[in-house]
């Protein structure tokens, strides 16, 4: 396995220099209401409680902070090691796959905790999307990268003379793949219908939020269950797809960060919670099926015809 | 998969670091392969066999649970 899609190793210190000020600026901007005056611009968009889009003053301090953090962490996470080889490439992808799972598990626990707190009246935070608890959604923009960086560093530098090689575990194909696949497809379908404002679905708004919550769960089971024909090649497709998914996800998030403002950006954060998994299952299913049809065609062309 | 890299290194009198430099991987990678924790790619196995001047089959051997 060759290392694909990596930055040169000189990007790592640059990444640290970008991420640290990014985190400090982000903290000041979110928790201390700090704003850089020079980053204030008038922009035409729809603010919360406004019926139509109009000219609003938008400060770009938080946008700058998020961009610095994402670009910085991506540089640290995806720059080459001084001696990059097939095993370090493999460890990097393993760590990414593991980190993504851990990230989701942490958020599921956090959301469950918020939900219990809400039910027992400790807080009036609603943990479901678009209804509050924006902190968790903001943290989710960078924690997958952060968890991955620590995991990868741990694997390559825990022992001086050797690398740690933990085995990745997947759920069995049956019945988990089927459950994951159909739960995600049905829930995504329902959410799409709701966006298209189908009458029947609108009446069911109360429970639709529970379906929103089921999407990442379904996708997670889909992504972490074995294929029917799991082998070395499939594992490679799997790991590469996860890396691509993370790239696409952060690329889109950076663009969205700069062009979408106000309450619409919270919707972006909602989508950000499922998008890495969604990109992953789409890309992974695509390469696996492409491979399947290729093999079938080759067999037909070579042996049967 | 089992391998005899350690023995071959002893015969040729080279360290893990020397072997790593010869085939362009890190020293830790050689160590991880020697301790049977990582199965190298065919390309890497062929590079190792070229260093020792022996066929791949003489250096790498399938284990009973492979």
Could you give a quick summary of the protein structure above?
The complex is a heterodimer of chains A (305) and B (66). By secondary structure, chain A is mainly α.
Report on the structure:
With 305 residues, chain A is mainly alpha-helical. In chain A, 69% of the residues lie in helices and 4% in strands. Chain A has a two-stranded antiparallel ribbon with strand order 1-2. In chain A, a hairpin with an 8-residue loop joins strand 1 and strand 2. In chain A, helix 2 (61-77) runs antiparallel to helix 9 (232-259), helix 3 packs across helix 5 (143-157) and helix 3 packs across helix 9. The radius of gyration of chain A is 22 Å and the shape is globular. The model of chain A has no long low-confidence stretch (mean pLDDT 84). Chain B is mostly helical and 66 residues long. Chain B has five helices and two strands; from the N terminus they run βαααααβ. In chain B, strands 1-2 form a two-stranded antiparallel ribbon. In chain B, helix 2 packs across helix 3 (27-34). Chain B is globular and about 30 Å long. The N and C termini of chain B lie close together (7 Å). The model of chain B has no long low-confidence stretch (mean pLDDT 93). The A-B interface holds A 1, 81, 83, 85-88, 90, 156, 161-163, 165 and B 20, 24-29, 31-33, 35, 37-38, 40-41, 43-44.
């Amino acid at each position: 396995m060759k290392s694909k899609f990596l930055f040169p190793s000189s990007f790592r210190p640059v990444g640290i220099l970008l991420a640290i000020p990014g985190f400090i600026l982000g903290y000041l901007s979110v928790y201390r209401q700090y704003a850089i005056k020079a980053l204030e611009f008038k922009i035409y968009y729809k603010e919360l409680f406004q019926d139509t889009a109009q000219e609003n003053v938008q400060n770009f301090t938080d946008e700058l902070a998020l961009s610095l953090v994402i670009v910085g962490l991506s540089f640290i996470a995806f720059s080459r090691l001084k001696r990059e080889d097939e095993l370090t490439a493999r460890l990097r992808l393993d760590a990414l796959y593991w980190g993504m799972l851990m990230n989701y598990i942490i958020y599921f626990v956090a959301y469950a905790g918020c939900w219990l707190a809400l039910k027992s009246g400790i807080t009036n935070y609603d943990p479901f999307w678009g209804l509050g608890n924006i902190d968790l959604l903001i943290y989710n923009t960078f924690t997958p990268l952060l968890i991955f960086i620590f995991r990868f560093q741990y694997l390559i530098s825990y022992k001086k003379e050797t690398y740690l090689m933990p085995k990745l575990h997947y759920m069995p194909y049956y019945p988990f793949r089927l459950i994951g696949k159909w739960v995600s497809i049905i829930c995504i379908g329902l959410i799409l219908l709701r966006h298209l404002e189908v009458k029947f679905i609108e009446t069911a708004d109360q429970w639709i939020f529970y379906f929103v919550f089921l999407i990442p769960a379904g996708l997670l089971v889909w992504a972490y269950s074995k294929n029917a024909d799991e082998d070395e090649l499939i594992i490679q497709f799997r790991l590469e797809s996860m890396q691509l998914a993370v790239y696409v996800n952060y690329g889109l998030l950076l663009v969205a960060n700069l062009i979408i403002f106000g309450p619409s950006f919270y919707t972006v954060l909602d989508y950000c919670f499922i998008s890495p998994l969604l990109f992953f299952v789409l890309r992974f299913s695509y390469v696996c099926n492409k491979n399947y049809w290729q093999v079938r065609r080759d067999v037909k062309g070579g042996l049967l015809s | 998969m089992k391998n005899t890299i350690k023995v071959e290194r002893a015969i040729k009198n080279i360290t893990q670091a020397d072997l790593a430099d010869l085939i362009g991987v890190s020293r830790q990678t050689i160590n991880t392969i020697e301790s049977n924790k990582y199965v190298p790619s065919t390309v890497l196995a062929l590079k190792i066999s070229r260093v020792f001047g022996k066929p791949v089959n003489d250096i790498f051997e399938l284990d009973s649970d492979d």
